[in-house]
Amino acid sequence: MRASRADDLPAISASLRVLRGSLCFLSTNATGDVVSTAPILEARNLARVFAVRRSGGLFGRPAQLHAVDDVSFDLAPGETLGLVGESGCGKSTTAKLVLGLLAPSAGEIRFEGAAVPAPGTAAWRALRRRMQMVFQDPMGALDRRLPVGAQVMEPLAIHGLGEAGARRERAQALLEAVGLGAHHFDRYPHELSGGQRQRIVLARAMILEPSLLVCDEPISALDVSIQAQVINLLLDLQEKYRLAYLFISHDLKVVRQISHRVAVMYLGRIVEEGDPDEILAEPAHPYSQALVSAIPVAAAARRRPRLILKGDPPNPVDRPPGCAFHTRCPVATARCRDDVPVLKALGGTRRVACHVAHGEGGSA
Ligand code: SF4
User: Which of 75, 76, 81, 221 has a beta carbon 3.0–4.6 Å from 41's, enabling a disulfide?
Assistant: First the structure.
């Protein structure tokens, strides 16, 4: 029997939901082409706990170190998310979780719409071609005994792709794409400058045509003049290949230059996320305020007094209860000592985890 109109409604509304879901992931680029903006990477409630021993060597009491705690974010093709925070805040552990180099203690990573397979499996190795990492120290990432051309080609050989001639051709094309010439092919890492070595690392990361690059402090080991060149190269490569970047840095100013969105991390959690310009102009979380105030600017240009935090970040093994920042926060209230603030919207695209920023701090 033919279903009545009313009977059809749930099916129609389900189809509309699917259609609406797909449409909201479509947009037009600068040339007017319709492109997908569905997230390439989705991190959901990621956590990573390490079992450690407190001081006392073998006889120290076992403890848990929460390196990453309830971290969620999305990353679209061609987008850069900057992860910023002081060392030990969980940025690099988040990168390793994303790449499957560490298994999460809780939560999930989805890449191109599917859950990332278990590390070490054939499916994971195939997927890793699409997600590459760029490390901080290019000299440490390269083999000093091998010419750089051979190192750029190496991932093709590891994955059994192409014949020797085609691999060489592809490597030379990549060297050109990162601003180097064919004459660099047979050079050794020690014969190149720091910036040239980082270009080699980028060429090697690009040779498997990834859609995601995880860049862990990729310019912090370089001279300031070279940093700008590598940032420009990353921007060019992103535009050309529509790469997504997870860009990790302790330097908010550097992150601003390259990121579409910024997530500020403190003791394993994201405490503020949003547009980099907005966060730099008007940071909402007291920790972001301290980071912004630490950026060197001419005294006349400084808009607010310098905010210097007291003390060091707490040991992640002894994470303070409530808001983990309350031991250093200049505006902490009684509530901050007990209640963990939730990362939630604060107007526009900004999300902040702070009772006081949301006007819910209560009395001091
Ligand atoms: Fe400071 Fe409280 Fe906000 Fe934490 S929740 S950042 S302690 S004001």
Answer: 75
- Which of the listed residues 338, 355, 358 should we mutate to test ligand 1's pocket, taking the one with most ligand atoms within 8 A of CB? 355
pTM for the model stands at: 0.84
Backbone phi, psi, residue 17, to 5°: -60, -45
Radius of gyration of the chain (CA): 23
Cα→Cα distances 114→46, 79, 117, 179, Å: 16, 19, 9, 35
Q: What digits encode the pLDDT tens for the residues 66-85?
A: 999 999 999 999 999 999 99
- Residue-wise pLDDT for 122-159, tens only, equals 888 888 889 999 988 888 889 999 999 999 999 999 88
Residues with Cβ within 6 A of ligand 1? Answer: 285-286, 323, 325-326, 329, 331-332, 336, 341, 354-356, 361
- pLDDT for the residue 298: 63
Per-residue HEC secondary structure of 79-122 comes to CEEEEECCCCCCHHHHHHHHHCCCCCCEEEEEECCEECCCCCCH
Alpha-carbon distance of 354 to 36, in angstroms, equals 33
Residue 304 CA to ligand 1 centre (angstroms)? 19
